[in-house]
Amino acid sequence: MQTSSIFTNQPQDPKAFVFTKEQFGASPDGAGDNAGALQRAIDALVDTHEFGVLWIPEGEYRFADTVNVWRGVRLIGLGKNRPVFKLAANTPGYGFERSKYILHYRNFKPNEKMPMRDAQNTTFFSGLRNIDFALEAGNPGAVAVRFRVAQLSSVEDCVFTLADAKAGIEMIGNEVERCVFNGGQYGILTGETVPYWPFYLGDSAFSGQSRACISTYRAGMSLTRVCLSNAPYGIYVPNKERDNHYIEEFERLYMEDCFLENLSAAGICMNMVRYPQNWLHAERVYGQKTPTFFESFEYEFNRHIGVGPIRSESDFYEVSINMGLKIDIENDVAERGFDIQYTLKALDGLPGASAPDYVPMPCPSTWRSVKDFGAVGDGEHDDTEAIARAIAEAPAIYFPQGDYRLTRGIVLRPETAVLGLHCATTRFVLSDHEPAFDDANAPRTLLTIPKGGKNHVSGIGFNGGINPGLIIVEWLGEPESLMEDVFFSHGRYDVSLRGRAQYYGMWVHDQGAGVFKNIWMPDVLTRDGIHINDTQRPGKTYMLSIEHHLDIEVVMENVANWRMIALQTEENLGSEYASSIHMVDCYDVVFANLFQYRVQAIQKRHPYATLLDNCKNVQFLGVHVFSIGPCPFRYAAIVDGGYKVDDHEIGWMRVFS
User: Model confidence at 273, in pLDDT bands (50, 70, 90)?
Assistant: First the structure.
């Protein structure tokens, strides 16, 4: 895991702000308090652009109070060494039990008449990257970051050194990647996310926490390639005390390619596991000197409804487990009941850590700005030819913030990287009724990832306008090709155009594959959000949010060997008759922590979230079908037009027929 600075030189972007002494009063010498200065910089950015990037140059920045980070602001560290945000020992205000933050991510900047609000389910596009935190001793109430955010927000490439602080991050949302947590009471301390979606944690490491590496409940915690070490517990799901009695909490937990090392109490501690909304799935999880892999609260008092401890006699082991309410469906016959199946295999030693499964971001020193090739990025000029010249000459193309207007489709070379740093302010746009994309009977693609492509596409948004023949992205790449931090915007909210003004948002077909991560698709103008067909090459998705389409969010036809982790769908007004997933002729597909939601305002019932037709060996490792309104989906799934799954909380469902 890289812990050195990623952005050693500042990519040129006139719209980006820089936190300097001259402009905002920054004090990068470790002495002066930077809280007021950083707040001024964030406020100025929001007042000027609403959303955007604020660069933090190399240095040590001391804080003595909380800084509010408004919606859509991304703080990114810059320099040969990562900047460090520091809390000095025994800082006043951070010594109490109640949490106090260095950075508090919030919703919109309020005006004088509005109250200041925590981040909400509308807190999109916020970010923190390439900045380290050092919280010195004597601050037991300190938390580096409060981050209860929504789609297209992330904490990436940070090291949290916490001493006796309460946590590195409290209340999480969307995703955290490539972070290191050292010390503290907890690395992450959280409950459910603010929009009630799942949460993705990837390629991160925790060590030395005094209570637990992660304390969590109801968060839809989804982990891949995470190491939890040198603490009493790896993952702890607590009971909560209220009115002098305990409320038994639950978690929807999925783990893959993770390590549990030197955990004295248990790798995982959860409550009674027969709750239908409580499940545990783990694949290729490795233990070292962690005698108890799983511990259930109060098992000794509730043996008739709980699961006892799972222990290993070996210092090294590999474990796979599926636990929860299980539904097996074959030939319109279902078996239903609580089940636990696990294998625990002794090993002579641990395997090496798995590398990320996607093409890494090219080193920023190799990026070439698209403006060097003549692009303007004002949304008016035609930038198509400039972008084509950049693709022909540069393997890594950087797009400063702006709107890049296209008039025809562009095809990447197999090695091309397309790179932005803020997907809400860096967009490819089309005018309405662009001739190349205006014929619904002859659809054409705006951006094509070619066969054999090992492309990296990140930090970009799309606004396709009214163009009924438009396919925004066609993906034919290799399994390690990557799309991440990408926003498919509808540009306008016109119910009369829903599902009729564009073709597909993203089309993966003809043996296309790849990794798709941290993507939001509320592009209501398109027919389907993501359409995958005729591919058996492995694909993987992490933290996709696909919402508000007229008929279907995810279509899969003749697809195999895909794994979809922390997928979330949502139906809103205008998509009352939409379903979440349609699968036809698919096999060997896995969904993990699938959340399928209908908004509170919907007044009409819809029969099913997922439709499966002629599919086999499809696994759902945790399904949460829900609404806080009166009209959730009637059935979680309908299989082959016959069997109807009327459970809404499913720990483990397998379709064999």
Answer: low
HSE-CB of 22 using CA atoms within 13 angstroms: 3
DSSP letter string, 414-464: TT-EEE-S-TTTEEEE--TT-GGG--TTS-EEEEEEPTT---EEEEEEEE-
Cα 136 to its chain centre, rounded Å, is: 30
Q: H or E stretch including 24?
A: helix 21-24
Note the CATH architecture for domain 1-178.
3 Solenoid (2.160)
Question: How far apart (Å, rounded) are the C-alpha atoms in residues 91 and 510?
Answer: 59
Is residue 206 a contact partner of residue 176, using CB atoms and an 8 Å limit?
A: no
pLDDT at position 493 is 63
Largest interatomic CA distance in the chain: 72
> Is-contact 520 152, C-beta < 8 A?
yes
User: Contact, 58 vs 65, CB < 8 A?
Assistant: no
Contact 277, 320 (CB under 8 A): no
Torsion from C-alpha of 494, 499, 503, 504, nearest 10 degrees: 100
Which of 40, 46, 1, 47 has the alpha carbon at shortest distance from 21?
A: 40
- Residue whose tokens read 């800084």: 67
Q: For residue range 636-657, what is the model confidence (pLDDT) as tens digits? A: 999 999 899 999 999 999 999 7
Residue 207's identity, in one-letter code, is: S
- In angstroms, the CA 138 to CA 157 distance is 26
Can you tell me which residue has the tokens 């009630």? 196
Contact 531, 549 (CB under 8 A): no
Across 13-22, 86-95, 144-153, 492-501, least confident range: 492-501
Domain boundaries in the chain?
1-178, 232-347, 367-517, 551-657
- Sort strands 504-509 and 470-475 into parallel, antiparallel or unpaired: parallel
**Is the pTM for the entire model greater than 0.85?**
yes
The b-or-e profile of 367-406 (16+ CB within 10 A means b, else e) is bbbbbebebbbeeeeebbebbeebbeebebbbbbbbbbbb
Q: What is the pLDDT of residues 193-243, one digit of tens each?
A: 998 999 999 999 999 999 999 999 999 999 999 999 999 999 999 977 666
Distances (CA, A) of 387 to 261, 372, 382, 408, 429: 48, 10, 10, 11, 13
Nearest one of 318, 325, 246 to 280, comparing CA atoms:
325
| Element at 636 (helix H, strand E) | strand 633-639
Determine whether domain 367-517 maps to CATH 3.40.190.10.
no
How far apart CA 457 and CA 638 sit, in angstroms, is 35
- Token code pair at residue 378: 């004002």
Neighbours of 583 (CB within 10 A): 25
3-state class of 317 per DSSP?
A: strand
Chain-centroid distance, C-alpha 70: 19
Residues 6+ apart with CB under 8 A from 615: 583, 584, 585, 586, 587, 589, 639, 655, 657
Give the three-state DSSP class for 497.
Answer: helix
Same topology between domain 1-178 and domain 367-517: yes
The CA–CA distances, whole Å, from 152 to 234, 294, 480, 520, 537 equal 27, 33, 21, 7, 27
